[in-house]
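Example record

The entry below shows one chain as it appears in the dataset: sequence first, then structure tokens.
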Amino acid sequence: MNSRRAWLVWGVAVCAYVVAVLQRSSLGVSGVEAQQLFGISAATLSTLAVVQLAVYAGLQIPVGVLLDRVGPKALIMTGGCLLAVGQAVVAFAPPTIGVAVVGRVLVGAGDAMTFISVLRLLPSWFRGPVLPQVSQWTGNLGQIGQVLSAVPLSLVLHSAGWTPAFLGAASLSVLAVVAVLLLVRESPLGRVERDAPATWGEAARQLGESVRRPGTRLGFWSHFVTQSSGTVFSLLWGVPFLVGGFGFSPAQAAGTLTVLVVSGVVVGPVLGVLMARWPLRRSNLVLAIVTAMGATWAVVLGWPGTPPHWLAYVLVVVIGIGGPGSVIGFDFARTFNPVRSLGVATGVVNVGGFLASFVMMFLIGVVLDQVDAARVASGAASDLFSFDSFRLAFLVQYVVVGGGVVGLLVDRRRTRRRLHLEEGIQVAPLWVALDRRLRRRPPTS
């Protein structure tokens, strides 16, 4: 455990996840080009991303069940193959949306198999306080894939064209599959220690048990409220928002997405330390992150006229914290589930953020189209990606994330009640705990 071999296995697995994130986010930097290439509306463009995320979210629980049965290595490799095929299909798609949708479905399926499989490897190779920190680093370093899509992929797209860009991305998945095949083992013994269910009926029962655990649902809602805003921004609407709303050039907008990644990489290790130091206060970290994101969006959307560029960077930095914040949800799954059902519990949690994301993506596209239609009906020129249009469309986030916060608070109360009944651990409200700590502090002279 915690050996050099463990770090090698982890490093190769993380590289596979980096490539998966590159494929996932490739549409985000090519949204404007996709709209022009396929001649589609904002709602149809959002459907292209929504289909991908819907497949991703819909496969999380089946993949989680498979993960407990066949192990992570096979699923990482299968996912890499699907990603390569999907991006190749997108690369050669004719100027009609149907073929591209098929390609993004394959990308969503391959992506669905990667992250939770990498997380499933970690308990077999790491022990102790380093485990939650390695989990944070896994999520954070994976977002380097967004940098690769925002810079190299974007450069190839704008210089060489659509087909070379997406075909080059597909080749990276092939290399990742080969690396995993040669270098990754499931545990120091060669296989993950697991007590897989003997039948699919038993797997379904295990899934039901996991969902009924309030700690699993707490992880679901934590992922739901933290990850969704950054995912919507980076995967589809960020570049059009920065170009049409803030006046960035396409290259500037794509480069700005790297700030989102840097923010997560910087904050992620800090969150990992805080999770290890105060495990009973993880939900407070989640609520603090959500509050910061909501307040920043309020300033941006409420800004009179066109906001200054510096405010766009502030926004990207803050929503970037949501990426490592969502990893807290997986830590809840690990804490409140036995090892035998950790794969399916992780899958349940991972549904959360992507469910919120594809709902928000689609609704934002619908609102953009409606606002632009009203603008044209009033006699004004069409301006689909104007700041005023996005000002209304992005309000969708408050409805979706607000519902998630309610769910989080409900299941946090149930989790704490169960923790008290089963283990005798009583978690006081944060303000009560802070008051007690202050009262115990000796007076200073």
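Notes for this example: The chain has a mean pLDDT of 85. The longest helix spans residues 342-377.
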